[in-house]
Amino acid sequence: MGGTSVQRPTRYGSRRGYGFWLFAILVAVAVLTQACSDNTGPAGPHFQNGQTVPTVGTADTAAGLVTTVIPDSTVVPTGHETGITVLVTNLNGFPIPGRQVQLVADGGQFQGPAIGVTDARGRFVTIFLCRAADDGTTRTISVFVQGATGTAATQPITCGTPSGATGGGTTGGTTSGTTSGT
Predict the structure, then answer these.
(1) How far is CA 153 from CA 12, 142, 162, in A?
(2) DSSP 3-state assignment of 21?
């Protein structure tokens, strides 16, 4: 039987169907979604050597503390208030919770507590009032933090309208006093 046989061309390699690639893409999306869904802590690794990395900072020495004073406004009309936020962090920027904070001013009056403890985010917040007797003066707020030695963090606040200026005050914490623990 001597017939002719027809040979079919062979493929250049095995081809995978669309179902395989769709499955591979769905698995990759699921893996990335799981990996990116843990947004409870700061940026960076959440675990190190099988142990949880803390989301707050520590400062073993006074030099490791950074105190920042952030006023809501640096120019406050007489008889008005401004919020004062004290932020205590370590040198890496992680908050230091549970530190005692004391604020002292050379004028004006604190409407909120002038002594307290930093919260879980390393913050202590109070309110400062510019009284009528403070009109046209610049008052300095000094902040002392438990464990920090040396000079305090300071922030000037101008009460009333400064000479040559008109209108309201500077807002948004545009300036801040910062000091390291030394």
Answers:
(1) 73, 6, 23
(2) helix
Residue 88 · residue 101 · CB < 8 Å = yes
Torsion of CA 97, 102, 104, 109, to 10 degrees: 80
Which comes out higher in pLDDT, residue 48 or 15? 15
Structure-token pair, residue 87: 């932020």
Give me the DSSP letters along 79-105. Answer: T-EEEEEEEEEETTS-B-TT-EEEEEE
Q: How many CB atoms lie within 10 A of CB 168?
A: 12
Q: What is the pLDDT of residues 73-110, one digit of tens each?
A: 999 999 999 999 999 988 888 899 999 999 999 999 99
Tokens of 162: 């400064």
Shortest CA distance to 77 belongs to which of 32, 130, 125?
Answer: 130
Tokens standing for residue 122: 């390393």
Instruction: Report residue 155: phi and psi, to 5°.
Output: -150, 120
Highest averaged pLDDT of the listed ranges 37-46, 86-95, 161-170: 86-95
